[in-house]
């Protein structure tokens, strides 16, 4: 992981979330980690698709736009 950002979160709440996740994975921490990694991959792919569509929309929106003149009195 390259980002070392610590989320602002209540420690007790985070511990409860960790416990719930491990329990949801049959009590196996390795399975819980695998589930988190899979979810992380899915979210990264969603971000990439959104970024690609945003870039296309931005470029598409730039066509046909007449640049303003800096000395315009409008």
Provide a descriptive summary of the structure in words.
By secondary structure, this protein is mostly helical. The protein has a domain of 51 residues. It is 65% helix and 0% strand. The chain contains 2 helices and no strands. The N and C termini lie far apart (50 Å). The model has no long low-confidence stretch (mean pLDDT 80).
Helix and strand succession? HH
Relative helix content: 55-70%
Strand-residue proportion: under 5%
Q: What's the number of extended β-strand segments?
A: 0
Average of pLDDT: 80
- The rounded Rg comes to 22 Å
Key traits:
2 helices, mainly alpha, 74 residues
Structure at a glance:
The chain has 74 residues and is an all-alpha fold. The chain has helices spanning 11-24, 29-62.
Set down the secondary structure blueprint.
Layout: H1 11-24, H2 29-62
């Amino acid at each position: 992981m390259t980002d070392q950002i610590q989320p602002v979160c209540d420690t007790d709440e985070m511990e409860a979330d960790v416990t719930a996740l491990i329990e949801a994975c049959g009590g196996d921490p390795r399975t819980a980690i695998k589930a988190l990694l899979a979810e992380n991959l899915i979210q990264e792919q969603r971000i990439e698709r959104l970024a690609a569509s945003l870039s296309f929309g931005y470029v598409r929106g730039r066509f046909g736009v007449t640049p303003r003149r800096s000395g315009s009195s409008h």
